[in-house]
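Collaborator request, handled under Task 6.
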Amino acid sequence: MSVSEFRRKKLLYVFNVFFDVNQSGTIERKDFELAIEKICHLRGWKPGDPKNTETHEIMIKIWDGLRKRADSNKDGQVSVEEWVSMWNDYAQNPSAALKWQQLYAQFMFQLEDASADGTIDSDEFTTVCSSYGIDPQECKVAFTKMAKGKSSVSWEEFQELWKEYFSTEDPNAPGNFIFGRTSF
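C-alpha cells returned to the collaborator:
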C-alpha cells in the first residue's frame, strides 16, 4: 500500500522536527544523543540526575528499536524512505505497535506531562512542542484540536491519538495535532 501525500507530510514532519535533530537527512544515534541533551536541558536534568540517566536509557532503547526495525540496509542510519515504509507498515495494524513505538509514545506523554498528574494540559504541551521550534500559538491551537476542546488529555486518550496520527487519512482527525502542528 502506498502512502498518501498527506500521511507522507505528517511522517516527514516528525522525522525532520523530532528525530533528525542534526538535520543530516537521516536518523542516527547522534540524533538521539542530541535529543537527550535538549530534553534534559529543557527539564533542567543535569548529568548524574536520575531523570537524566532514565532519559538517556529510554532514548537509546528507542533508537535501538527504531534501528532494528527500520534500518533495512543495515547502514546504521534510518533514511526517509525507511522511515515512511516502517510507519506505513504500522498503519496497517496500529494496535500491534512495536515495543520501541510504545516506549516512544509513553516517553512523549511523560515528557509533556511535566506535573506528573497523568494528564497533559495546554501549557505543558506548548512548552514541549515550542521547544522544537513550533510557534507557541500554533501549539495552543493544536492542543485544542487534539483535546477536542477539553482542558487536558489523559494517557488513554493520548494512546488513541498517537495511533491516529500515524495511520489516519482524515486531515481533521484529532490525532493529527499531537506534535503541535495544525496543518500538513
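The cover message to the collaborator said: "The chain is about 60% helix and 5% strand. The chain has a mean pLDDT of 94. Please let us know whether this matches your experimental observations."
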